[in-house]
Amino acid sequence: MENVVTKNEMEIVYKKPKTITDTPMHYCPGCGHGVVHKILMEVIDELGIQDQTIGIAPVGCAVFAYDYMNIDMQEAAHGRASAVATGVRRVLPDKYVFSYQGDGDLAAIGTGETIHTVNRGENILMLFINNGIYGMTGGQMAPTSLIGMKTTTSPYGRDAAQVGNPIKITELIAQLPGAYYVTRQAVHTTQAVRKLKKAIETSFKYQKEKKGTCFIEVVSNCPSGWKMTPVEANVWLEKNMFPVYPLGDIKSPK
Fold it and tell me: Mean pLDDT, to the nearest integer, of 169-188?
């Protein structure tokens, strides 16, 4: 006999993973941080490593990540997440460890920690959210801000002659021998979300095999900092960010 679904019954197509808490997120509407959080926690839940994973969140928009991720979390000073992650991984070598960092954190104040962590090939995952701006502190120009991009500290647009060009930190660290898997992804479409999820799964697999540093850049938006609606921000992202920060694997063992 076929099963009959009554009007009071609904097929469950998605359930919030137990790795995400019920705490309402503080992110602005349209921000990519919440999507990345969900994907990351889905992977950890599906891999069954919730009690084996430790995340490191420094200063920035994701400073309260520990309120949303139902795993062991450690706060770090601004720019020092990869250094803290290194210490945690060395003390607890059988744990899965990741850092979650913004562009101002990882590519500015934390540049030294980033370079040396990857150069040593520390067996961690570094998640790097690049929205081209200092979102938390008022929309200032970041190392990743585009040429001509208007921010609160570059109201006439970023001038290369005065402050240099956008730094492509992901391409830089991909040249280091300790970098095993380096990729750049996004979360602005369903297809992009699927690709990012696969990249995170792959990174944890390599971490289990002790292959070295895995580095994932996520090119995201900042509707509030860019002074746009979420829809406008995604369109601007595709038109302006991706030509400078093209998506795809930069260094892969395959």
Answer: 98
